[in-house]
Each structure stands twice: as C-alpha cells, then as structure tokens.
Amino acid sequence: MRAPAGGDGGHDPENLPESGGHSFKNAGIFRKTVIFNIIRNHMIVMPAPDPMYDVVIFCGGRGTRLSEKTREMPKPLIELGEYPILWHIMKIYNHFNDSRFILTLGYKGEMIVDYFVNQYNLLQNFSVRLSDIRLPPAQDDWEVVFVQTGRETKTARRLLMCRDYLSHYPFMATYGDGVADIDIGRLIERHRHLKEQHDVLATITITRPYSKYGIVRFEGDLIDHFREKPLMNEYINVGFMMLEEGVFDYIDGDEDVMFEETLEAIAADGRLGYYIHDGFWHAMDNYKDYVDLNELWRVNPQWKVWND
Predict the structure, then answer these.
(1) How far apart are the C-alpha atoms of 103 and 55, rounded to whole Å?
(2) Which of 60, 151, 161, 188 has the smallest number of CB atoms closer than 10 Å to its CB?
C-alpha cells in the first residue's frame, strides 16, 4: 500500500515487496523497486518512492443546481471553510503524494487561474519590505496545469483535451465538487489487481449514498414501516478514478458526450473495474449540500485526511 505523505513507508526485511513490473512513460520511476544499502555488514531495505500520478479534475461545468453561488464563480471555487472545495480535493490527493493537477477549465475558468496564480499564495502570514516587495510562494508545492476546454464542452471531450498534458499512465481523474476520506493507496492497489486479472482500462470508486427522501413500506391500506433517509442498496460512481491510456480509444473527438457514456462503453466490453469506498463521501450538488459541508468542516471534517 502506498504510504501517505509523511509516512515512513517501511518494509520488513523478511517480507520484501515483489517487483511490480510497471513502468511509466517519461517518469523514470519504478514502483516497488528495492534499494539495498550495505552499512557495517547490515542490510537496510529501502523502498524506492512511489510515482506521483497526474490528477485530472473536472472544473468546467456550470453547476446550475447551485446557482445561488455559481452565478458569481465556478463551482470548484465555492468556499468550503476558508478555501474552495477544489483545494480540499487537491489536499486529499496530495496527502498520498500526488502533486501534479490538470484542471479542465470552462465556465468562469479564468477565476480558477486567478485564484492559484494571484491569490492562493497570499492566504498565509508573511511580511514584505515595501521598498522591494516580494510575495511569498504558496505553501503547497503543487504543479497546476490549466487546460482551456471550452465553456460548453462535455466531460469526455474535456478529458481528451488533457491527453497531451499527461506525463505518464495510468493517471487519476475526479470531479471538482466531491470530497471523501478515501484511501488512494488502496484504490491504486485495487486498480493494479484488476489490471492484472482482467486488463481493465479504468477503475472507478463507488459508494452507497443515503437517500434524500424517507422510504416507506406499506401493506394493505396502512404503512407498516418508515425509514428516514436510509442508506441505499445501490452503488453510485463518485469519481476518484484510475484510468489507463486505452480509455482514449473510447472517446471520439468529433462527438461531445459525457465521460459517463465513455465508461458505459468500457463496461460493455468488460474492462471497467470498481473500488468500493465505505467511508465518508459528500458532493456539493446544491445549496443544502453547501451549507451541510461547511457545517461539517466546522465541527467534524471527515474528509480531512491531511495533517496540516
């Protein structure tokens, strides 16, 4: 399992990791390579660092169901506490050592660029000499790639337009409005297993949502059972995906469709895997979600897997 940032990632010398056999284009990094250092006749086993995965985040939609906020800003910039929800998503990935983010810009995308280029580094304590003003760097050492994908473009084409900016495969992708206490390391392990066993092209994270409505059961003229907003039996796709290069074979650049249609086609060919997330997940889909998530951030931010 990949250790989060700050973890020791150690291995028992009696149980050495197996060679992964995966190489990544342009990365020059091999997962599970073991480096042996001989010091005073003692062998120290040190795992090579895990490769950092590119993370594509869909940021271009209009967010019409949250128009109270999106009239003024793109949905990924809606505040969750003192930072936008997009920042929270990036912090989740960065906790697991991923720090290269590719943002698909569309509706009011220039505001996302302005936030990271001109505002984010100022959200910290600092001092300046007024005769020679030098602003501080941002506290997070992330690489952010801004890809202009169009105001009305749908998600499959947005992803295709990011292809030239990917550094290696597989890569990750998620939606710019959902947070979770997901273990990215376990997602990676699951995808690698499914790739080996079934040659999957994509692994999506699924979870069981709570119903937004009370559920009733009746017999005859009377209701004999009532449950207020129960956990549903069905699973839904919540993003946090791992994708292989082959997914692009399912995207026709001349057709503008949602990426979910691409996933349907991959599933029809038996090459779509899943990772079950049983923990916390919440999307900022409407104004009530906005209020609920901000209250959770104040009292119990379950998705805050990072330490700072």
Answers:
(1) 8
(2) 151
The confidence score (pLDDT) of residue 123 equals: 84
Retrieve residue 231's tokens.
């956990």
- Token duo for residue 115: 């936030």
Residue 136 backbone dihedrals phi, psi, to 5 degrees = -75, 155
The crossing angle, in degrees rounded to 10, of helices 184-198 and 85-95 is: 70
This prediction's pTM: 0.81
294: which residues sit within 8 A by CB, 6+ positions away?
79, 80, 81
**Phi-psi sector, 255: left (phi>0), alpha (psi -120 to 50), beta:** beta
- Average pLDDT value for the chain: 85
Contact present, 210 and 229 (Cβ < 8 Å): yes
The strand ranges marked E within 192-264 are 202-207, 215-219, 222-227, 236-237, 241-243
Q: What are phi and psi of 250, to 5 degrees?
A: -100, 5
**DSSP-derived secondary structure letter, 237:** E
**pLDDT score of 5:** 59
What are the CB-based long-range contacts (under 8 Å, 24+) for 224-229?
none
In sequence order, the 6+-apart residues with CB closer than 8 A to the CB of 197 are: none
Asked whether residue 235 carries a pLDDT value surpassing 80, the answer given is: yes
- Sequence-separated (6 or more) residues with CB below 8 Å from residue 299: none
Return the closest-CA partner of residue 162 out of 251, 274, 225.
251
pLDDT of residue 227: 72
The predicted structure's pLDDT at residue 47: 52
Domains of the chain plus CATH, in order, are 1-50 (no CATH), 54-124+131-299 (3.90.550.10)
Cα–Cα distances (Å) from 44 to 2, 32, 39, 68, 121, in that order, read 19, 15, 8, 57, 40
Select from 168, 263, 159, 284 the least CA-distant residue to 206.
263
Looking up tokens 């597989």 gives 170
